[in-house]
Amino acid sequence: MHSLLRNKYQNILLKGDIKINGSRTWDIQLHNEKLWNRVLFRGSLGLGEAYMHGWYDVEDLSEFFYRLTRFVLPSYQDGGFRQISTKLATVLFNVQNIKNSFKVGRRHYDIGNDLYQSMLGSSMAYTCGYWKGVDSLDAAQIRKFRLIGEKLKLKPGMRVLDIGCGFGSAMAFFSKEYGVEVLGVTVSKKQAQYIRKYYQNLPIRVKVQDYRLTEGKFDRIYSIGMFEHVGYKNYKTYMQTCWRLLTNDGLALLHTIGNNISVKHTNAWVEKYIFPNSMLPSLSQIACSAESVFIIEDVQNFGYDYYQTLLAWDKNFTANWSHLSANYSDIFYRMWRYYLLSCAGAFKARDMQLFQIVMSVNGVEGRYDSPR
Amino acid sequence: MHSLLRNKYQNILLKGDIKINGSRTWDIQLHNEKLWNRVLFRGSLGLGEAYMHGWYDVEDLSEFFYRLTRFVLPSYQDGGFRQISTKLATVLFNVQNIKNSFKVGRRHYDIGNDLYQSMLGSSMAYTCGYWKGVDSLDAAQIRKFRLIGEKLKLKPGMRVLDIGCGFGSAMAFFSKEYGVEVLGVTVSKKQAQYIRKYYQNLPIRVKVQDYRLTEGKFDRIYSIGMFEHVGYKNYKTYMQTCWRLLTNDGLALLHTIGNNISVKHTNAWVEKYIFPNSMLPSLSQIACSAESVFIIEDVQNFGYDYYQTLLAWDKNFTANWSHLSANYSDIFYRMWRYYLLSCAGAFKARDMQLFQIVMSVNGVEGRYDSPR
Fold first, then answer.
1. How far apart are CA A225 and CA A278, in angstroms?
2. I want to staple B32 with a disulfide (CB 3.0 to 4.6 A). Which of B23, B55, B223, B331 is the partner?
């Protein structure tokens, strides 16, 4: 039975030139034949669980996932068109599913920021960097901030809103580099505490608040890696909220992971326990929700840069494992790398995108020239 | 009755600081009080007809339309959101409606290319130029061609398809500047004759053919100002046709006027007599039709440049009127300027957009860096 299944999966994997026990960095090194049953009955969830259990290894996991996503999965689609993102989303979210089912996922959120500080580097930015012309993670994050600052045409004295401000590094950069006043809103008390502690000398404020309850008027609004948590039912509300908070000559920038196809669902277990309403928007969903609210001035797609970012996070994570391992289990180590590197491979395969979208309230007067 | 209506419209127009018989270049100079009834009963159609009849004049017609579109029309919308494009589309298409109803519109298509040659200049490009860093129409058209060539990453020997190739100036530019072989498809025999006559020494071919019947494989496909004639029912077919004709590492560029909102209709009379299935696509309609077919790599919006382009066309048209007037009537003169300048004002008001969209078959490997 095992050998029949093994032959079946070997044939499937050959579409991506992936061999079982082959000698290339992307080949599977099999340790337990139970892998095939697990994948047969639990799909990509089983693939992730089996990895965590140590039933197989892949030296270059991101390349394995790149090949799986770009060459193997599409050949099982009809009509020659790519409709694989829902599958991959399952792969990705299952990691978090597993993470929780092993009771290791929530743990690291509770024990502090050592993991993130180790992994993210000095920028503390947990979103895709912009690697154009730079070759380090920190530089790519700064490059990303500058790209956003230039796209938003920030000028001294402007009032700026950061929706989902994370650890505040973007706010700090913009206030220092462009002389703007930034209000950040977050639903995380820990992030707010972090910002108040580290950036008390800057003209930035932070509120623990649902962004929809924010009041006031702003010249510029941006969100970096927050829209993924909005959910399709609220895309329009997100747009209308930004519209309400912007001045007439205001600009909004949306930095979000994009899905190749429009979905209205996510993994039910994740929905309930991890990220309520978390899902990746397609460009058509974004454009549709912006319609009659904003004029879309520019759309940049640099999804490939997330591949580079995730590889850098993985490098930091493994380099810091010796001191992190006191707080995290070995199974967490495998789970976390699986998460980072499966996403990396998917971005390299262009199965997910990174969209930066600039929107204006009434259409900029004159041409909107975007930097690149 | 006239004075009541006049007062009503004066109040409406004040939202855009437009005065009846005022002294600014954008004010209406009224010659016939019947204008108000015409507008009351025939809307924007009446506004255009009245202009053609000479019932009013505006020194700067584009500024009048800019103010009308940006400030007057939005104040009659609910909810504070802009939904005015259908109204403006009516304004614009009514011009063509009128054109035909006066039996002067079709005439100029039949009598040869003197109008277009006079108006368009040496580029013979009847689409929006790109005015970044240049200050003449000819330079803006060349700048646009170069922008497209760079976005498509053209390299010597590539096979390129131009869908709706017009008078062939883009094909000629790309074959000369980038050493590519271009096939142009057009539904106009006259355009094909023009191309065969003027560009016989270049590696370009032209076919009089529906693009959906084109066969072969191409490294690159572009269309400049053709998608407006596709119609919403065929957007998906357009995308799938491009997909079928492209190599696996192919790129497609779509250059089209964009609507701010999604519509599935156009003026019925225009539909029947002028441009069957002509309508302006919204970005969400474009993104939706590209979904599961292409990865959208980049979207640029330079709608404002159409304002500049249309002003330049109007300038050429009026400068050449002395010799054109032998073939065209005085009412054609007013109609044509109304068409050019009402569109110019609408683009300046950002009520219509100009989208250049770059799409790839499988996602470019690595970052897609777009020029600007």
1. 11
2. B55
Nearest to A161 by CA among A191, A188, A176, A181: A181
Token pair listed for A86: 């829902």
Cα B103 off chain centre by: 22
Kindly report the pTM of this predicted structure. 0.90
Flag if A299 and B303 touch (Cβ within 8 Å). Answer: no
| DSSP helix/strand/coil, B207 | strand
Q: What is the pLDDT of residues A67-100, one digit of tens each?
A: 998 998 877 653 333 333 344 444 443 433 433 3
Q: Inter-chain contact B132–A353, Cβ cutoff 8 Å?
A: no
Evaluate if residue B285 carries a pLDDT over 60.
yes
CATH 3.40.50.150 maps onto chain A at 95-360
Please name the residues in contact with B76: beta carbons below 8 A apart, sequence gap of 6 or more.
none
In words, the CATH class of domain A95-360 is alpha beta
Could you report the predicted ipTM of this complex, rounded to two decimals? 0.90
- String of DSSP letters for A150-219: HHTT--TT-EEEEES-TTSHHHHHHHHHH--EEEEEES-HHHHHHHHHH-TTSSEEEEES-GGG--S-EE
Check if A369 contacts B (Cβ < 8 Å). yes
Q: Chain A: give the shortest CA distance to residue B195, in Å.
A: 32
SS (HEC) of A292-354: CCCEEEEEEECCHHHHHHHHHHHHHHHHCHHHHCCCCCHHHHHHHHHHHHHHHHHHHCCCEEE
